[in-house]
Amino acid sequence: MDNSQITSQGRMEGWLHLIRSNRIGLQYSRKRYFLLEDHFLKSFKSVPHSKNEDPVRSAIIDSCIRVTDNGRESIHRKVFFIFTLYNTSNHNDQLKLGASSPEEAAKWIHSLQEAALKGGPHQGVGDHIGCPNSPWESFRLSGSSRASHTKSIDWTLCSGTHMEQVTADVIAPSPWTIFGCQNGLRLFKEGKDRGSRGKWDDHPAIMAVGVVDGTSEAIFQTLMSLGASRSVWDFCFYRGCVVEHLDGHTDIIHKQLYSDWLPWGMKRRDLLLRRYWRREDDGTYVILYHSVFHKKCPRQKGSVRACLKSGGYVITPMNHGKKSVVKHMLAIDWKCWRSYLQPSSARSITIRMLGRVAALRELFRAKQGNYSSPEFLSGELTRNMRMHQTDGNMVQMPTEDGNSKENTSEEVDQVSSEHASLVGLNDAADEFFDVPEPSDYDDSENGWTSDFGPEMNSQDTRHPKISTAAGFVRKLHDLAVQKRGYVDLQGTAKEDNFSCCYGTTLQKDPTCTLPCSWTSTDPSTFLIRGKNYLQDRHKVKAKGTLMQMVAADWLKSDKREDDLGGRPGGIVQKYAEQGGPEFFFIINIQVPGSTTYSLALYYMMTTPVKDAPLLESFINGDDAYRNSRFKLIPYISEGSWIVKQSVGKKACLIGQALEINYFHGKNYLELGVDIGSSTVARGVVSLVLGYLNNLVIEMAFLIQANTEEELPEFLLGTCRLNHLDAAKAVLLKPSSRLSSSSQGPVRN
């Protein structure tokens, strides 16, 4: 395994793999040694012997560069953890790299994000940073001038990706209640409300928590394995396979369970699951499951398909990474006749299954924490997927046709300014040179091997590493997900058509009892940076908001809807016509799919903007400054565990994970948060598909304070969305999309 490292001089270096595509779209890899130092990313064919050695290729990393996490891909039966660098002003200007492990990829992603956030090497005192108009200017191989902007990023104290302790920024009671301890594991049940204590649902969510003597990465590797090595510790598992690989973070898997651990006379069970995984900034791994239907894996004779409503693992490192806390949660319907199996017996089956955490603990204890599954996502799974045998019946399991295509490097090279961008690092002139690798058989013992056959080509899409907070808006709804061949067990509602008047399409309900409504929520629920945060890193309860939420829109359309504040007849333009002092701050969350949904939140202040200097700087700043400061704190106050786990309760800088389009009018600033700019959240979209009607979503928005003069932070506004319904979104007609008068807004 290649080990990248951050040296004492603050530079990042190590072996990576350039991921390229040939003329027919097939991917291949080339091993190179990369060095990130002083905003320069340099590529070598071997380890440089001195600082003066010239690189084969180099490029500048500045504030226009985004780094996206693509998850894992298999290329020629080798598993790589992929990340992509791209230019925000030209997405064709990109570089795709692969690391040998998720930890290696995480180190590089963090270092590259830090370099990008701090701007280019030409930034000095008084310099301003911003994305240049030229699509190639940000990836210069040599010096370039920077366009002036009204506000620069201040990185003198804190950057958006500095590692903070990953704790919740929301004050909320825990839904879990301990009810027992078994085999060294604490057992918890989830209560839906305060009155549920002592009562059990028919299919309750139950969680087992234990400590395992192993790194979070090694445990993650073991849990993801579906090969024969799983039978060493998983007493429930008979065999499994990957039915369809959706993207680097998501796949459809089929698990068959043994019957000897089930009650006498109970048929063998199997599970068809959508599996999603991600790695958090602190090294925590999250694996989430829920049941789906899939045309490639129908129900099979001789077994009963159980329904996993929600479940998964959370693996959190502790003791400097030497040990890990493992949480395993299941809410499962075993599909038993009530007359045959009492609810208490069904719960006992679930609790017995959760005992796998103890088996995992003993496995790592026996291996002294060094256990590494040699069959992690092994090639045998592809063979199992093609020919799935159960009880003497052969069920053909066709593989994915792999129609996903990529822009070849030759196509990108046709751009005239190729050597002014990172495309230069991807130059195909040395296509046939590669650093010799050790034998694949030597690596397989402790490496990451592939479960994807040659027909399972991953999609060439950008997958930004979205933290739990920023990612949740992408996870609300995407009806297009059903086109992939699988269908979630939760259904979707029918659509209706409505007329639109901007600012009135989502009703207000201060009582929080009406479905598909909004209201403000208590600011003291959220934690923000206090006056002395730079010294004590202490966050305090928010005491109020700068603005008041006055309206909301819940819209659907056949395209992305921008600049709602500038459209005539809406609440913003009505106030503009009156010429009053009111200023609007609009957050337009755009969720694309076969139908594009827009959730627009309108906040208004009546005092002069100049009375809030940080807000004034944000309004008048450039996009780079705004992207480095706009923060969201999410909270799912009511909803399934799997959705709560997906969303989290941690603040995040949205602009560092998603693209935001800014529209500045006479009396408003609108932020169009383009969820379509991130595809990593596709793995979680289906987890909340169908749950939307059952969710209560609370959010707070603020501008991050980085200096003593800016502290303490203040909330711009809060909101509470009560049981949104996709069917009640207002369908926009072409006539309602007309822009405002000739004094239209300016897109910054």
UniProtKB/TrEMBL annotation:
CDD domains: PH, START. Residues 176-349 form the START domain. Pfam families: EDR2_C, PH, START. It is found in: Endoplasmic reticulum. One of its GO terms (molecular function) is lipid binding. GO terms for cellular component: endoplasmic reticulum. Residues 9-117 form the PH domain. Keywords: Endoplasmic reticulum. It comes from the Eukaryota. InterPro entries: EDR2-like, EDR2_C, PH-like_dom_sf, PH_domain, START-like_dom_sf, START_lipid-bd_dom. SUPFAM superfamilies: Bet v1-like (SSF55961), PH domain-like (SSF50729). This is Protein ENHANCED DISEASE RESISTANCE 2-like. It comes from Citrus x changshan-huyou.
